[in-house]
# Entry
Amino acid sequence: MKNHFPLLDPLRFGAALGVAIFHQMFWSWAWVSIGVPGFERYVAADVLYPAAAPFTWFGWVGVEIFFVISGFVIANSASKSSPTEFLLGRALRLYPAVWVCATATLLVLVLFGTGKASEFIQPYIHAMTLVPKGVTGDWLDGVYWTLAAEMAFYGLVFCAMLTKKITLRHLAFGLTIYSAAFNAVALLILSCTTPSDLPYLVILMFRVPCAAFLLTHGCFFALGIWLFISANRELTALERLAVAVTCLSGAAEIYFFASFFLTSIPAISGQSALVPIMVWAAAVGLIAWCANRNRRSAATASPEAPAYWRTLGLITYPLYLTHNVVGTAIIRVLVDAGLDATSAVWVQLGMLVLVCWFICAKIEPAIRGAMTQAIAYFGQLPERLPASKRPKFSRGLGLRPPVPAKVIATLR
# Structure
């Protein structure tokens, strides 16, 4: 069983890039069509990209791709870990980047934002602790809503591991049925209403404020688990049926969200809701191909993937957390300096990728090392490595070995 599936890294990076371009070149100006302010809400960057609308409006589907990948990767981590190792691995993977990125976002909002600095304190605390804000209140940055769904999924996996009776297969079946039932009802209701009707908005709201309930997005995590299981053995007929249900449920969620966009925003009224579904389906097909390839080559050693693929995967998380506010601030500065709006986007993305590389390559490991020693000092890390293989470090402090090999694996 592999610890890492390298082809997922460029896919993850591509999804993050799609979301970034969607926010910066479409949502930044188009969402005024539904009465929500654009870039000025954050940093007063007044730039428009209407000509790019047909190519950028569906970039949000990168989030649905993220969720499928997350289901796959987390199932891979959980299958090799104890509950404690899984929990520690997730904390060591998530918190360092979010602490750096949330702090950078706060600084940008204080320097460039139109609101009072005090308004950002509570959202900043929520972001730093990865605590969902609930239905009311403001996010430090709108993109943080997806972390609520991720944390809910991690919590489910952790609780299942604690029971020692609920397997990944059971969890996948539960999420498949739970989310598919909601999406089927939502699609039925939305087919009888319009975006101006209250039922439409009530159903749609579950995409963001109630993300932690996993009602609309549970099917994507379930699909990721099924694909991981298929990477290690053939699926049964019932499991293949569950995969089909998750695919239909996921397509339904994407369809009604796309329909809301196409109906509410005149600039893309002529586009098709099938476009984001096809993009998502292509990504799922690539993940399924990776899973099938792994199962068929389980007995043979596969060649090492290029190191830069892994780097792209590590860049993805900080890039996703910073593109919306920090990236927008960079665009504003570049436009104010005289650069045209389109060039400013691409220059900004290049700069942001470099900054995110520095975060994941230099800053995150330093914070993770400090976290590891702090946890070890309080005796919370399980000792799994034999004494001869334990890494050497400050014995004078009386610390235990930092992280067992299984915990390291979960960081991937």
About this structure: DSSP finds 15 helices and no strands in the chain. The radius of gyration is 22 Å. Residues 16 and 320 are 6 Å apart (CA to CA).
